[in-house]
Structures are given as structure tokens and as C-alpha cells.
Amino acid sequence: WREGHWVVLCFFSTVWGWKYHVAQEQLTRANGLPAPVPESKFQAHPTRLMPLPTLLLLPLSTPPLPRARPCHGGRLTLKPLGCRRGTVRVRASSETTEPPPPSRTQMIMDKISSAGDEVGGAGGAYSYDALKRLDQICSSICSAPQQVSPSSSSKAPPQIVTRVQGPAPAADADLGAETFDVLVCGGTLGIFIATALSYRGLRVGIIERNAVKGREQEWNISRKELMEIVQVGILSEAEAEQVVTSDFNPNRCGFEGKGEIWVEDILHLGISPAKLVEIMKARFISSGGAIFEGKSVSSISVHDDLAVLQLGDGDRLRCRLVVDAMGNFSPIVRQIRSGRRPDGLCLVVGACARGFEKNTTSDVIFSSSSVKSVGDSGGSVQLFWEAFPAGSGPTDRTTYMFTYVDPQFGCPKLEELLEMFWDLMPGYQDTVLDNLDIRRVIYGIFPTYRDSPLPAAFDRILQVGDASGIQSPVSFGGFGSLTRHLGRLSNGVYEAVSGDFLDTQSLKLLNPYMPNLSASWLFQRAMSTRPGTDILPTFINELLFANFQSMQKLGDSVLRPFLQDVIQFGPLVKTLGLVMISRPQILPEIFKQVGVGVILNWSGHFVMLGHYTFLSSFVGPAVRPWVKSLAPRDRYRWERYLEAWEYGAGLDYRQEE
């Protein structure tokens, strides 16, 4: 019965399909179109015939499914080839994908940038390809787990450092491999501490995957910060003047039309990194230092007596101490933090352009708008600006646009911010984009962690600069934070190497807890948007202006340290007190914006800031003579305590006369 049933069904299917095809063929010819021609001997019926189950779903008035035509945009198309045994056979046709039109950012960068101009360090790359690579890094950061546990399924970062019990093998020494006192990994900023240590008589080497050279784009600092390098003894005053390319005053702070505050001598110098690094390089080599350019570190084996560095080209180097100056994306730091997502990100984009007629003042921080949406995700950001005259020409000006965000899925990309930069910058600078000659496009990402600075995690390895997280969470890190700590670190590292205090606990004392740095985290949180809060888009600007207005009323002793990323207990208490008295209605909004948990955590650092201020001001001077009489290891430890109190309270900063 079943076989007879299917025979009857197939018979009616054939008749029905044939009648349907004849009717559609007549309709096709009536419209002046050619009749379909069979394409294969396997087709039971002409091209447009479908098996009964599909055909019965279509009313007689419905035209047959046409043969798919080539489509634009690279979509996959299906071409019906007929039926056999009740099935439809299709052939896939893939068209070539047409690339999307280039973005405005890509067109600008392709005209001006070259990969050959790139150097190591933050902001040392200017090409569009480098921008896309950094955006990929940013996306991977935002997708990383917030907390990493041993049972986590997340892929662990490469293990660069391995602890090996016992002394280093003698094979390298037998082959004549030299043993350095210190090897600095990362030469763009590492050249400064390397030179300071070499000047003290240590045998120092630098490993740099590129060339040890500074970028073309200027660094902006204050003269006081530049003179700190002179005080360390590795730069003369005459050389310091040689690297200054621009000097400008006054400097503006402003927030969305609410008012402006003008200050003097804050980030008022532009210096040439290319010239400065070249001077440091010459001094370093003349003092006996060795530079290994074009080499990268693939692994480090830490033994009881030495660290052995395996380089990418197969060479091996030995040293007593490894100084990690590889910046925010150091592979050693990634291993220590287990690939954990940072607590915050500062995203920076900008450009150096020629054609600004008004170019004698700078902006230290300026906000020209409230919270805005950016990118495909539509996430909200509060945008800030910095702008400085450049030394390459009288109408050359560098403009930065930056924002603080929580690293999470949907975080804006640098290219998206640059597209917004081209739209907003002309209005902010009162110019026309087409009238400007773009010289360089600048971009960077700066991750921040609450548990900074990063304490040493291995024997014989120490992080410095951005790798240690010593910079303020609200700054761009880099050169400014290095100059402030250069004297402290060079003294401490020299004493550690000289006394062989290179165990983990001794090295941790060189990157101690600093409450003023931890307290700065609240300010980054207050300057970033939080999804899901009912805060007005204008609130961040209102809060910042209230604080800056209060600091201005309290005088330079309060305002100037803050503008140079130094938090001190006395000025902070005065500012918070004046804000609470003059603007009490803003307090509930602060709790909404920042979060109760963050404020409670910050309160602990605030108390410790007061405690460190007391210790540095009263206990430190009393115990310093006693410390000098101690045994070397105890003296080393207490010297680090005294430095931690002073720098952790921000009391290393002293007002210029």
C-alpha cells in the first residue's frame, strides 16, 4: 500500500508541476522573456520546477522563485538547479567582497604617516596600521576577565619569567658571555634610569626591540620637571635648554562655558624627545653602557645568583637585576597580573597641525561639551581637551582629545574617537579643518589599576615607569611621572644592587604603597561616565568647575600641585571642605556618579594620606640620624620607608620660589 501511495503521489506531483510550469512559461513569453532552458541531465523538469512539498506552499498566483542573480556586497547567493528524488539541489556562488570606503581618519593618515617613522614607547607610532593594531589590543583588554582564578577558562598570558632554584648554569660564562649588573628592557624611557645607574659605576645594558630614539612629537612638561633630570646629574642645564622647542604662557582650564581659570608655568614647555633621548644615548655609551637594539626578550630564567635573558634571536644575556621599562603592555606585567582587565582606561587621540593663527597659549584641561555618545555601541563619554603650541613652526599646534572609560564590551575604539575628533576639534579651536595641514595623528591607551604601583613579584626583576603603574590615574603617564621618581629610583636601585638586596621583599620597597596615588583613583572615576545612572550630562563639568573654582580661591599652594598630578593631604582637605560648604547640593550626585563602594574605599586611602603626611613631617626627621647608623640591609629598608612616606604624601613636591 505504501509503495502504491508514493507512486500516486509522485504522479500527481509531476502532473501538477508540469501544469504549473506550462502556465508560468506562457506568462513569461507573454512578457517578452525567453523560456527557461534545462541546465542538467539530472533535472526532471525545467529550471524553475520545485518539488511538491515546496510548491504546495505557494499559491498559483505566486511567480516561481527566480534564478538568483549576482548581488553586490559579497553576499552568498543560492542558485536552484532543479530537483531529484524530492530534494532541491543548489549551487553556491560567492561574489568578491567590496571593501568599505576608507574612513576620514584612514585617508588623513595614509597621506602623512609612514611606518618607518615609528619608534618605541607610547605615542611613538603614527601609521593607520598601528592604529588598527592598538584598537585590537584595546578590544582584547576590554574583553579580558575582571578577576582571574586558577579555575578560569580564560587563556593564561605567556609565562615570560620562570623561577629556577639553584645557581645559573656556567655554560654561558664559559663561552665568554658578560654578566651585567643591570639590564634595562625598553630603551625609550629606560635610557634615563640606565644612564643614572651607569653614571654611578654599575655595568648596565639596554635591550630595545626597535632603535633607542625619541619620537618626533613633543613631550609637554613643566620646567620644574625638566630640572629634576638635571638634579640627578645626567643632564646639564645647557643641554636642558637645547631640548626645549617651545615655551608658552598662560595655560587655561575651562569647563563648558562655566568659567575659565588661567595659570602660569604648568606644562608650559615643549621638549624634543628625539634630541633628549639622543643626548642620553650618547652619555650612556660614553659612561660604559651597552645597547642591544633590534632585540626582544623571549624568556627570563631567574636563578639564585643571576637572571638569564633569552633573546628572540637566540642570544643570551646575564645580569644581577632586570629593570622592566617596557611600559603599559609589558609582557612581564601581563604575566604578573594574569591578564586581568584594568580598572580604568584613558583613551587619547589628537593631531599636530599647521595653520593656527591664535597660538600663544595652551589648554591644560578644557571641556567644550557635555556627555556624548560615540561609536557603534552608542556608549557615553565625557570628552576633554589639551592643546599646546608646537615648536616646529609658529602656527603649529598639538591638540589632544581624551576620555576616561571603564574597560568593558562596547568600549569606544580609537578610530571612532578620531572620527569624532575631526568633527569637534575645529569648533573647539575656532578654525576650519580644511585650512589645516595635518602633520601627525596621535593616539594611545593608558590602562590604570587600583593596586598601583605594582610591587615586585619575582626576585631580581623590578618594574619602573608606566610598567609599574607609578603614574597618576588621571595623567597620560610616561615622561612626567618618570622625572618625578627618577632620583628616588636610581638611588634605591643602586643601593639594592650594591648590597645584593635583590630578593622580592627588598625590591617591593622600591614600588611601595602610595596613598596619594591610590586616592587619585577617585578623580578618574568622577571624570568618567557610568552606564545606568540618572546623572545629568552636565554633571561632570559642574563638579570639575566647582573643584577648580575652590582651588583657585585657596591659592597656588592648593591648585598647582593638583595640576601636576600631586595629591597632598592639606590642600585636599581644604578643597573638599570648601566644596561642601559652597556647593552642598552636589554631594548626593557625587555618590551617584562615583558609587558608595568607591567612596568608602577612597576614604581608607584618604586616612592613610593623612597618616603618611604625619610620618613624613614629624617621624621622618626624628629617625633619619638613627637610620644612618644601622647595618646596610636595615638601613636600605628604612631609607625606603622614609621615601615611601615622603612620596606617598606628595611632600616631594615643593613650590618653586
From TrEMBL:
- Which InterPro entries does the entry mention? FAD/NAD-bd_sf
One Pfam annotation reads: Lycopene_cycl
Q: Sorted alphabetically, which keywords does the UniProt record give?
A: Signal
Which domain of life does this protein belong to?
Eukaryota
Signal sequence: where? 1-17
Check the record and name the PANTHER family matching this protein.
LYCOPENE BETA/EPSILON CYCLASE PROTEIN, LYCOPENE BETA_EPSILON CYCLASE PROTEIN
- Name assigned to this protein: FAD dependent oxidoreductase domain-containing protein
- Originating species: Aegilops tauschii subsp. strangulata
Source species taxonomy: Eukaryota, Viridiplantae, Streptophyta, Embryophyta, Tracheophyta
